[in-house]
Amino acid sequence: MDGYGLPMASLDILLRLVRSPDGRMPMTKLAREAALSSGGFTKVADRLAKADLIRRVPSETDRRVTYAELTDHGLDVANRARETAARVLREHVLTPLGQEDSRALAQAMRTLREANTPED
Length: 120
Hints:
The chain is mostly helical. It has one domain (8-115): Arc Repressor Mutant, subunit A (Orthogonal Bundle), CATH 1.10.10. 63% of the residues lie in helices and 11% in strands. The chain has helices at residues 8-18, 27-33, 38-50, 72-116, and strands at residues 24-26, 54-58, 66-70. A 3-stranded antiparallel beta sheet has the order 1-3-2. A hairpin with a 7-residue loop joins strand 2 (54-58) and strand 3. Helix 1 (8-18) packs across helix 4. The radius of gyration is 16 Å and the shape is globular. The two termini are 31 Å apart. GO terms for molecular function: DNA-binding transcription factor activity. This is MarR family transcriptional regulator. InterPro entries: HTH_MarR-typ, MarR/SlyA-like, WH-like_DNA-bd_sf, WH_DNA-bd_sf. Residues 1-114 form the HTH marR-type domain.
C-alpha cells in the first residue's frame, strides 16, 4: 500500500492493533502474530514509537507484560490504511473472483486461520 511512508511490517502491526480491543495487544503476542523475531519486532516497535504511532504501556496486573497501544495519530493512520487495504482487496481480489468464489475464498481463509491459530 502506498502513501503511508511505512514498511509493510509496520503497516501490518498497525492494522493488527486497530482490529484489537482498545487498539492494544501484548507485544509478545503481536510479534508472534506478525511472524517477527523478538529482535525484529523490537526494531519495528521502536520505529513506530518514534513516529508517535504506538506507545508501550506496562500491564497494571502483570509486570512481565508490556502492551503496544495505538496513539491517536497511530489510530488515524491505521484507520486510513485499513480503508486502503479494503479498497485494494475489493479491486484486485474480490471483484475479479465474483461473489461465489469470494465466499469460497473467505471460507478457506477462516479454515486456515482456525487451523493455524495457537491457543493462548
